Amino acid sequence: MTSVYKPTDEQLNVISHEGHAFVLACPGAGKTRTMVERARTLFSRIDDRRGIAFLSFTNAAIDELEARLQRLGVLPTPLFPSFVGTFDRFLWHFLIGPFGVGNSRATPRLVPGKGDWEVKPFDTAQPLPLKAFERSTSKIIADEVRRLGFAPQKGAAAWETTAKKMIERSRAEGLLDFEDVRDCARERLTDPDFAARLGAALAGRFREVVVDEAQDCNPADLQIVDWLRGTGMRVKLICDPNQAIYAFRGGVTDELLAYSKKFDREDQLTMSGNFRSSPAICAAISQLRPPHARGTPDVAVGPNKHDPSPVYILSYGGAGVPTSIGRKFQELTESLGELAYATPVLASTWQSASKAAGRPVVDPGGDKTLLLADAVMHFHFAFEAGNRRRALTRLHRSVLLVRGAIAKKSDYQDHIEAQGLHDGRWRAEIIGLGEALQLRPGETDYQWLDRARQLLDHDLIGSSTIKNRLHAHVDLKTMLVAPSTNDLPARSIHSVKGLEFPAVCVVLTSKGAGSILDVLEGKSTAAEPMEQARKIYVAASRAERRLAIATPKSQANRLQQVLDADGRSVEIIAI
Q1: CB 493 within 8 A of CB 532
Q2: Which residues pair with 548 in a beta bridge?
Q3: Per-residue pLDDT, 250
Q4: Which reactions are catalysed by this chain (predicted)?
Q5: At what angle do helices 513-520 and 527-540 cross, to 10 degrees?
């Protein structure tokens, strides 16, 4: 987008629209800038001093919007009465924090990692994460446990009973994550008197609520959005249903489109025209939707609209993801003049992306030295706020293992509860350790290990020395990698949602490529392949000037036929 903003007619419709709105926006449609200009329009009025609530579902999207609002001089100081934050944070701030949880007298506290708590009904039982259970019913989520290979001979009753006790006890103690927050908010809104009083209060503070990335709503979220619409505030939903990749949140696609019908025809708006990507990338993005959802192909209208580059299919052999993917991708992006750090390799999992980018993937098993090194590497390669928090927790757990405060990884949550560490007072020390343990230029694995021993040689529990706890390991050298602007970053697709890059390489694995292509050819509508196909769509739509999609050679021609349907240039390169 150029520095002098010249909105399209569709963007002007959104900027000037006074009522509720349901906005369908294609990738790169300029919705962030459009939201900024909508805010500028509202803030310039003196007849209504109420604020605006901008909500989204990822920290990355909120950070981008807030930065844009500040850079363009739109965000007021102080921010009050407006609000900029995630949907979950909004619920916490206005529905849970001030009122507590049900009948509990405990002060509510946020525990972001609660979904990773281990549910283990007996010592020899397979542990399951709490996020594999429905919070409201404690029942197992079939898709989650299937991925974990969970199939007990005597059924799941013991796990569900344990999960139910954990959920009830933690809520009674006021320990909540955002999954609980949504359930508690929904429960509160079933009280008509409470809902009416709170709705009136919110309508007194906000004139408009904008929900971006609305495809990431789950059914409970849509109920809350519907309640907001009835409070007197204008509500604007902006979404691309094809980017709904948060199935673990119970995200909706068909339900969202059905919900759009509640909006009057004049309130159903569209934003087309891709200001981000080149013509070939726009054509590929359109073809990466299921056949029934393709509609009119996206059109490149931004600064890259004359870029003639094709989309590249990197055809690889073998069952595993080879490092040759990353090497070829770097060759294809050299002419862009961008640092490698701005041209990520993306895959459904960080492990697959790392292999393709040439970054070693070592399973640390139960070795304390490798667990610590692995945690330090994740800490320094963490990309966005959610990943950073998980990486910090992983590092804290590894430090506790080394010190002997816990005997095994599964003891971590019990330790946190027993020591009352939910307030996060441990974070400052662990952040300091993470920074101190960064691999230095020219440092060998032995030198790093010596430094790690010195830094952790205190607060040890038991008679074992730090040298016995952190011993040399043949795989340590492979695991230790110094972050460099010359290395391709490896990212999971979830972590880059809402971002954009000059070039992107998307990796399809031999395990998933065939079922994804079945979806894109209209042969399958199964839930799991549909979600995986949407991930590829999201990943490809991050690209501005170069897009490469790596796929097993057995699927390369099929992929080319899908992407070639619009007549744009698609080039297969065997690697």
Answers
A1: no
A2: 312, 505
A3: 45
A4: ATP + H2O = ADP + phosphate + H(+); Couples ATP hydrolysis with the unwinding of duplex DNA by translocating in the 3'-5' direction
A5: 90
184 among annotated binding-site residues: no
Report yes or no: 489 and 339 within 8 Å, Cβ to Cβ.
Answer: no
31 is in an annotated binding site: yes
At 521 the pLDDT is 96
Beta bridge partners of 422: none
Closest CA to 135 of 119, 124, 120, 148: 119
How many separate helices (H) and strands (E) can be counted in the chain? 23, 16
Sign of torsion over alpha carbons 142, 148, 149, 154: negative
- Same fold yes or no, 9-95+182-271 and 279-359+487-574: yes
- What the block records as the tokens of 296 is 């009119």
252 burial level (CB within 10 Å; 0-12, 13-18, 19+): buried
User: CA 345: distance to chain centroid?
Assistant: 16
Q: Is 505 annotated as a binding residue?
A: no
- Environment class of 498 (CB within 10 Å of its CB; exposed 0-12, middle 13-18, buried 19+): buried
What whole-number distance in Å separates Cα of residue 340 and Cα of residue 322? 18
The model's pLDDT over 146-205, given as tens digits with 9 standing for 90+, comes to: 878 898 878 899 999 999 999 999 999 898 988 899 888 988 999 999 999 999 999 999
Q: Distance between CA atoms of 471 and 465, rounded to whole angstroms?
A: 10
Three-class secondary structure assignment of 215-253: HHCCHHHHHHHHHHHCCCCEEEEEECHHHCCCHHHCCCC
For residue 362 the two structure tokens come to 């070592």
Dihedral sign from CA coordinates of 151, 154, 155, 156: negative
32 is in an annotated binding site: yes
The fold adopted by the segment(s) 279-359+487-574 is: Rossmann fold (3.40.50)
**Percentage of the chain lying above the pLDDT 70 cut:** 96
DSSP code for 420: T
What number does CATH give the domain 9-95+182-271? 3.40.50.300
CA distance 32 to 159: 43
Closest among 363, 362, 370 to 469, alpha carbons compared: 370
Give me the amino acid identity at 362: V
How many residues make up the chain in this entry? 575
SS3 175: strand
Contacts of 85 (CB under 8 A, 6+ apart): 54, 55, 62, 93
Dihedral angle, C-alpha 179, 183, 185, 187, nearest 10 °: -170
**Residue 498 among known ligand-binding residues:** no
Q: Is 27 within any annotated ligand binding site?
A: yes
For residue 505 the two structure tokens come to 């390489």
Extents of the domains making up the chain: 9-95+182-271, 109-173, 279-359+487-574, 368-479
Give the pLDDT score at 116. 82
Closest CA to 293 of 346, 244, 222, 248: 244
Task: Give this prediction's pTM.
Answer: 0.81
**Per the structure block, which two tokens stand in for 437?**
């343990």
Query: Which tokens in the block code for residue 318?
Result: 């073998």
Count CB neighbours of 269 within 10 A: 18
pLDDT at 564: 85
Ligand-binding site membership of 28 (annotated): yes
Can the peptide bond before residue 81 be classed as cis, meaning omega within 30 degrees of 0?
Answer: yes
Point out the residues of the chain with pLDDT beneath 50: 1-2, 247-251, 384-386
